[in-house]
């Protein structure tokens, strides 16, 4: 017996039914189950901690929420970033923020970091396109397993961090591996190598 595909749902339905769950995000009306592993969460937690050190020392207007959705207006898409840095001074412009942790305006976002897992195509292609359209100034793609396509991380495939910096209406992408020191425009004084991030996945 052939199982019927799940029906498409709206962003409002998604937020109502799954807004409090970390297990799903919505892409073009399709419910996408997120399957983070322990090492995936270790990497995301490590990066978030390093960002918070910078925030505590130098950027009091920045905030990393525990839970947050990015809703793309005019679409049936809502992403759930692994790490998102928000500008608190802009949150008064967010129409939903006082009721639920949902961001709709690119001006509220300083940086997004996605830790790549089995659905790497979304992180490399789809989210990159949507974050640039939203005007997110910096987007980190953290591929600690080196599972992304060769067109993105080269050959031979190896653990790679791509930092995408918004220039006019497109991302300028830099690849970091091994002991490369990461270069961020949002956190210019951060002292962090690619290998330090990758090592966070280990026990």
Chart the SSEs and their pairings.
Elements: H1 11-18, E1 24-27, E2 30-33, H2 38-58, E3 62-63, E4 69-72, E5 77-79, E6 83-87, E7 102-103, E8 109-115, H3 120-134, E9 138-143, H4 150-153, E10 160-167, E11 170-176, H5 194-199
Parallel strand pairs: 4-7, 8-9
Antiparallel strand pairs: 1-2, 3-6, 4-5, 6-8, 9-10, 10-11
Task: Describe the global form.
Answer: globular
Which range does the strand content fall in?
Answer: 25-35%
Largest sheet: 6 strands, mixed
What is the helical fraction, as a range of percent? 25-40%
Following the backbone from N to C, one meets helices and strands in this order, namely HEEHEEEEEEHEHEEH
Poorly predicted tracts of residues: none
Assembly state (oligomeric):
single chain
Count of β-strands: 11
Q: Could you give the distance between the termini?
A: 44 Å
